[in-house]
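Q: Hi! New to this. If I give you a protein sequence and the SMILES for S-adenosylmethionine, can you show me the bound structure?
A: Yes, paste them in.
Q: Okay, here:
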Amino acid sequence: MKQQLKSLIDIFRYKPSDYQFLNKEIERIYKIIPTDFGGGCSRQKGLLMSLLISEMNLKATVDIGVYRGRSLFPQAIAHNSFSNGVVYGVDPYSNEAAIQNDRPDLKKALDNFVDETNFNDIYDFVKNLVKKEEFQDSCKLVREKSIDAAVFFKENNLLFDLIHIDGNHDTSFVLKDVEHYLPLLKEKGFIVLDDISWESVKPAYNILKKQINLVDELINESNDFALFSKGLNRKEQKHTLKIFRQVRK
Ligand SMILES: C[S@@+](CC[C@H](N)C(=O)[O-])C[C@H]1O[C@@H](n2cnc3c(N)ncnc32)[C@H](O)[C@@H]1O
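A: Thanks. Here is the predicted structure of the protein with S-adenosylmethionine bound:
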């Protein structure tokens, strides 16, 4: 009887873990932001960034290449519910900036996508969703090219705990993102680099691998990214690996 009563009390005390909460919230927001040709952060990558924010108490993160917000909103959710921090979403939302030349095999499809996309509408969609979700304090949109936004961040002494690089994938742009944003990473911090199996992204991947620590990477039909860390102690490194293992499932 005593045992039954204890089980009943445990049921009423039940509180979902950060993982369960974030997983559910990401599932909810992804129903509003479906994947399409222009963007499609996976549940795993969204969960990884949001769990790093909640469990490591990250206060400032930046999302380079927002598009419809599949990588932005999981971060905003985690800041809003756990760290009380902010994600800066950097994207110029312009047809000219979206042109990519380093994938000859995809060039036609990429050009068609740019020609057919109304980036003003996508910007408005993201801006309105930030408002609707009441994320104004945890999510700031910066409608600029990443290198221009980096100048703004530097001038305002803004450093980041996590940087997600998923803007223009041509080599010169990804290299510039690494060059301008690595100095904006705090002493301890993370970089998530997307599409690491693209030839055009590999030079940036190799530079990061030389300069900071590669935690792990996930490449399968819905994922193609690496997580790097800098300045973590042993305990933090172990915790990071545990988070990565958790999202792999
Ligand atoms: C692959 S999409 C991003 C997908 C998004 N992270 C997601 O998970 O759905 C690339 C985005 O990078 C943006 N972009 C292009 N050039 C950029 C630049 N110089 N700086 C920042 N973003 C850029 C494009 O407008 C586009 O929205």
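A: The longest strand covers residues 185-194. Let me know if you'd like me to explain how to read the tokens.
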